[in-house]
Amino acid sequence: MAQVQQTTNKPPAASVEPPRLNWRRARLFFMRALALSILGYGILSWAYVIGATDLGSTPFMDQRVPVKNAIAVFAAIDLVASVGLWMATAWGVVLWCVNTAIRVTLHTAYSDLHGGNTVLTAIEVGAVVVYVVLAFLAWREERLEDHLSRQRRRQTMNTLG
Predict the structure, then answer these.
(1) Residues 50-79: tens digit of each pLDDT
(2) pTM as predicted
(3) What is the torsional sign of CA 136, 140, 146, 149?
(4) Domain extents for the chain?
């Protein structure tokens, strides 16, 4: 009996690369998850402003004027920043970072006036750190791909010329 040898187009197992994490996609996923959470926080803030929900022991209209101003400004900026983050735009990231820096400042330096929310502050600072790390990794990945693309073009030009 003759043995039939099957041929496959699969490369040898040693040359198969494990799947790599795409850092640009991870950054986009993080930005969209962040956008949804900020959108929810902005909607919750507006619900507090119009009296539809009670976020604290004091109703919005009984808050001090600086606190009312901060809540209204953050509620508006949160909604706009969430749209910018969802669309993965630079202005969305900048608006979110400025908003986060101001909110962290209010909860730390002016905690006597605005209340010191350490949990929210830690979450927001952590989110900024995660974004910065993901942005760096995505930038490095893009730079490496550009380098490899230029190198392939040079090799192609050398073989043709």
Answers:
(1) 988 877 678 888 888 988 898 899 999 999
(2) 0.77
(3) negative
(4) 23-147
